[in-house]
Amino acid sequence: MNSLEHRLQAGLAISLILLMIVLGWAQYSVVRQLTESFIASRSEHDSQSLLASIQFDANAKPILTESKLGTVYSQPYSGHYYQVTFVNGQSPLHSRSLWDTRLSFSPPPLGQVQTLHQTGPDEQSLLIHIATYNKQGQNLTIAIAEDVGPIYQQLKTYSSIFISIAIFALLLLLLIQRVIVQYSFRPLKQIHVEIQQLSDGQQGRLTEQVPDEIKPLVVAVNKLLSLMTQRLERSRNALGNLAHTLKGPLNLMTQLSDNEKIKHLPDVHDEMQEHTTRMQQIIDHELTRARIAGAGTPGQQFIPSKELPDLIKVLQQIYRDKDLRFDCHVDDGAFANTDRHDMLELLGNVLDNSCKWAKSTIICNIITEPLITITVEDDGPGCSEQQLKLITTRGSRVDESIAGHGLGLSIVKEIAEIYRFDLQLDQSPKLGGLRVQLKQAKSE
Q1: What whole-number distance in Å separates Cα of residue 31 and Cα of residue 56?
Q2: What is the DSSP secondary structure assignment for residue 92, as one 8-state letter?
Q3: Span 242-269, mean pLDDT?
Q4: Residues 305, 269: contact at Cβ < 8 Å?
Q5: What is the pTM of this model?
Q6: In the beta sheet, which residues pair with residue 115?
Q7: Which has the higher per-residue pLDDT, 3 or 50?
Q8: What is d(CA 330, CA 316) in angstroms, rounded to the nearest whole number?
């Protein structure tokens, strides 16, 4: 159970159940104790009355005046009984209600009182109050017994009613606490929605109108997002500035390589030409990336139907000498769970590579649902089967595999791996050039 809401609800439910069990046990124990205390008090009163009704004659024979006792002791199995035993061996006295049954107990010491439970006549549950007294120099023990079965039955009935009420109250409290917990967790659910929107690029920060317990976390996340945005912008700007800065020294090196003195050294001249050409390609590519990325906050949603026209305009300006024609078919949806800049760089590099090698036509098809699919084809020279195998081999460096298709497709492959896109390169069946396909992998 990883949900904090479910954990809290389960904890509160268990606490309430335990509380109800404790309250039920406490009320039953307290009511039973009070009942037995009341019966013991009444039995002690009857014991005192019975003691006052006993007299001893000149021969120390006990004489009981039953008129002072209630008629309940005269009815057989009435549930009220007494029995008097004597230390001097006299025959015990007992109530007529006992009939031919006798109570079994051990006399307590003089001045002490004993209470015990015992099964009496007619399987009655008796509570017996026993006390030893001294009267007229004679020690005697009086036991007063009362059937508490009906009282215990009423107590069970009362407990059943209490349990029913407690269960109803428990269910009501569980419902109330569930509503309270769900209401308390509503800001967290809103944060969850905003995080998903942040992941989809629909917003750039989280709302800080949240409970005090999680506000520091939200503020820290927003601060981190702001820092990431600033650093990413600085990094991209610095990369573009660096490429612009290097163009001057690179042009100077190109001019130096064309110097007559250098031309007299063919090996040095060829090596300088090779390195300066390679550096020029890298710088041009980085400047193209900077122009393609454009403005915007990292994490923004990438909507190809809106972004692609501007991207094509940039590429048409870069390759204006080729007069390229773009045939595009794009869905209206957005790329979920992607970064705008990353998708611009991915799509821009694929299209830039096609523009570089295309003769006149480029086809671009983009599907957003149910899975993202990008297909770009050109009418350029394409790649051989051996070159395609090297490009698509996992772990190989694309920029070392194929001259001219290297750096851009290397970046495409890196971004595709980050977003779990399958990269496929083959020959275009329509145009004959290179076809690049990017398909989003299914979620596991």
Answers
A1: 41
A2: P
A3: 67
A4: no
A5: 0.46
A6: 129
A7: 50
A8: 18
State the first-to-last Cα distance of the chain, in angstroms, to the nearest integer: 21
Say which residues have a Cβ less than 8 Å from residue 370's Cβ, sequence separation at least 6.
Answer: none
Task: Tell me the C-alpha distance between 248 and 242, whole Å.
Answer: 11
More confident residue, 227 or 342: 342
Give the Cβ contact number of residue 56 at 10 Å: 17
Residues in Cβ contact with 103 at an 8 Å cutoff, skipping those fewer than 6 apart: 81, 83, 94, 118, 120, 126, 128, 143, 145
The pLDDT tens digits of the residues spanning 287-328 come to 655 555 554 445 567 888 888 888 888 888 888 888 889 999
| Weakest-pLDDT range from 48-57, 112-121, 222-231 | 222-231
| Rounded Cα gap, residues 100 and 121, in angstroms | 9
pLDDT in tens, 270-281: 677 776 776 766
Tokens 């006792």 appear where?
69
In one-letter notation, the amino acid at residue 257 is: S
d(CA 433, CA 410): 19
Task: Provide the token pair at 99.
Answer: 């009939």
Give yes or no for residue 375 having a pLDDT over 90: yes
Crossing angle of helices 340-357 and 304-318, rounded to 10° = 40
SS3 65: coil
The tokens describing 390, both together, are 């090297």
Place of tokens 């989280």: 206
For the chain, the average pLDDT equals 79
Q: Which two tokens stand for residue 59?
A: 């021969």
CA-to-CA dists, residue 72 to 82, 99, 116, 152, angstroms: 11, 13, 21, 20
For residue 378, the model assigns a pLDDT of 92
